[in-house]
Amino acid sequence: MSGNLVSRVKRLLVLIPFVARRREGVPVAEVMEFAGYASEAELFGDIELAKMIGVPPEAPDDFVEIYLDCGRIFVALPLVFGKPPRLSVVEGASLLVAAEALREHSGETLEHALAKLRSAMPPGCAESAEQLARCAALETGPAPRWHAELNEAIAQRREVELDYWALSRGEAAARRVEPRALILHHGHWYLAADVVGLGEEHLYRLDRISGVRLGERSFDPKPPTASERFWRGPEADLEIEVRFSEAIAGLVVDTYGEPARRNPDGSVTVVTKVVGEVYALSWVLGFGGEAQVVRPDSLRQRLAGRVEELSRVYS
User: Fold this and answer.
1) ω into residue 296 within 30 of 0, thus cis?
2) Contact call for residues 114 and 99 (beta carbons, < 8 A)
C-alpha cells in the first residue's frame, strides 16, 4: 500500500462519492484522472482500504461495498450513509461550540449549517452553547513555554515559584503562587493563580514568565476562582476603551497592532473586547498608572474602588 494514510483518506473522500453517484460504474482510467492517482497499483490499494470503512454494529451491510468489474469501479454505500445522523442535545451543543470557533474564517456554507443546527435544538440550549462558544478559544500553534510545567502543577495542586516580568515596574521578581487554570485569550496564554500569603487571584501572561520552579507544598481545591467564573460567565464580549500614556505607547502599538489608535498628545487608545470586568481590572492594573479606562463607566467605578482599597492597604 503506497502513500501515507492522510493522503489516502483524502483520495478516498474524492473517489467514493464520485463513483457512488454513477450506478453504471466508472472506468478505471477516469477514476485515476479525477482523483489524481499516479498508478493502478495505488488505486487498487486504496480500494482495499475502502472496504474497511463502515459503521457500528459493523455487520456486512454496514460497510462500503467497492469492487472492480470489467475495467469499471462500482461503489454501493450502506443505507445509513443516505440519511443524516440523529444527534443528541449534548452532541449538537458540542458541534455548535466547535463550529463557532471556526466561524470567523468560514463562509456561507458553515453559516447555513449553524442556522439549521440552532433551529433543531431545544429552546435555550442553542443560546447556552453559543455563550460557551464565545468563551472558547482555538489554538493551532505549539503550546507556549512553561505550559506543560504549569499544567502539571495545576493537576497536582502544587505551589510554584514564578520569575515574572511586571510591566508596571519594568523589572522581574519572584512570586509564589497556587496555580488554578491556564487561559487562552486574544492570542495570549495566561495563568490564573492565587498569590501565596495574600489570598488574591492574579493573572500572569506566560510570555512574561522567565522561570518556573515546582514547589513541594500542595494546596486544597476550592470553588471556581473569579477568572474561571468570568471565563464561563455571561459577561463575554465586554467592549472596553483604554487610553495608554505616551511612555508605553510604542509597546502598546507593537502588541495590539491595528486596534491601537495614536492620539495627538502621543498617547494610544485601544478599543477591544474582553471576557468580563474581573479580567479587565487585572489587565488595566497591570499597567500601573500608564493605563486609563475611558469606558464603560461601570468598569471605571469598579477600578476606582479597587484603587481606593489598595491605597488603604499601602498607606
Assistant:
1) yes
2) yes
The alpha-helical segments, DSSP class H, found in 56-185 are: 89-102, 108-120, 125-134, 147-156
Closest CA to 165 of 157, 173, 154: 173
CB 61 within 8 A of CB 68: no
**Structural class in CATH, domain 147-229:** mainly beta
Rg (alpha carbons) of the chain, rounded to whole number: 28
Classify domain 234-314 at the CATH class level: alpha beta
What averages of pLDDT result for each successive group of 10 residues across the chain (315 residues)? 68 87 90 88 88 73 84 82 67 74 69 81 70 60 82 90 77 86 76 83 86 89 56 56 88 75 91 73 79 89 83 74
User: How deeply is 137 buried, as exposed, middle or buried, from its count of CB atoms within 10 A (0-12, 13-18, 19+)?
Assistant: middle
Q: Which amino acid is at 177?
A: V
Assess contact for 293 and 242: CB atoms under 8 A: yes
287 three-class SS: coil
Which CATH class, in words, describes the domain spanning 5-82? mainly alpha
